[in-house]
Amino acid sequence: MEHAKPPTGTQAIGRALAVLKLLAAQAGELGTSRIAEHLGLSSGTAHRIVRALVAEGLVAHNPRTDAYYLGTGTILLGQAAQRGFGLDKALPVLEQINAETQESVNLVVREGGESVVMLRVQSTLPLRFEQHPGARFPLYTTASGKAILAYSPDAETYLAGLPERLPKITNRTLSSPAKLAAQLEEIRERGYSIDEEENVAGVRCVGAPILDADRCAQAALVIQVPAVRMPARRVRELGARTVTAAKEIAQFVPVDRMMSR
């Protein structure tokens, strides 16, 4: 049961952020009763929070449905964050690779034990894998996650914290930390990572780390291709292209800001 006392400042901020994250995850509208249900709040508390967020322009109200959705203020904040991370400068690089290859291209950052898609240019070919910014996956299952781990100072700590048998996402997901460690060594020798349908069946990916001045990574560039369009020769070609593009992006993306939580 929710505590009767008014929430502290820290608690109120946490609840407001939880509402924003919920609306972002839903990518639609929610009424206060649904917000309260999702977050374990009373209806009155949920209503007060959303009204405060509406007043700041971070949430908007649809009077026809009496529901709430992310407001224009979040767009402005997102655009400012993109500029701060240099993503506005990185986007033309992704668009160029997309134009050259006709394949989907992602810029991904690490958050704890997950890789999170920050920027995406989607393939326009009929056969493609749909994805969106904000999508997140375990590091060990993706080309992006493995590229980042290969150049992460805490890679050994991460490996030591994994279970002996890794949870399977597909039947080709790596089965053990030892196999992952071996792949990380290969990535350091080769310069790019490969996802052999380990995260999504039928999709192969290549990725390269975006390195800071100390050759550490918190971000990666990835090209994502249906397996039927990705023979071994093309893996090598696109792998080399990701390395070149990642080096270009590293010149203007402040990688040191992309710190793991």
Automatic annotation (TrEMBL):
Entry annotated with the keyword Plastid: no
Keyword DNA-binding among record annotations: yes
Cited PROSITE patterns: HTH_ICLR (PS51077), ICLR_ED (PS51078)
Domain HTH iclR-type: 10-72
Matches recorded under SUPFAM superfamilies: GAF domain-like (SSF55781), Winged helix' DNA-binding domain (SSF46785)
Signal sequence annotation: none
Entry keywords, A to Z: DNA-binding, Transcription, Transcription regulation
InterPro entries: GAF-like_dom_sf (IPR029016), HTH_MetabolicPath_Reg (IPR050707), Tscrpt_reg_IclR_C (IPR014757), Tscrpt_reg_IclR_N (IPR005471), WH-like_DNA-bd_sf (IPR036388), WH_DNA-bd_sf (IPR036390)
IclR-ED domain: residues covered: 73-255
Matches recorded under Pfam families: HTH_IclR, IclR_C
Family matches, as PANTHER family: HELIX-TURN-HELIX TRANSCRIPTIONAL REGULATOR, ICLR FAMILY, HTH-TYPE TRANSCRIPTIONAL REPRESSOR ALLR
Protein name: IclR family transcriptional regulator
Source organism (scientific name): Prauserella endophytica
Upper classification of the organism: Bacteria, Bacillati, Actinomycetota, Actinomycetes, Pseudonocardiales
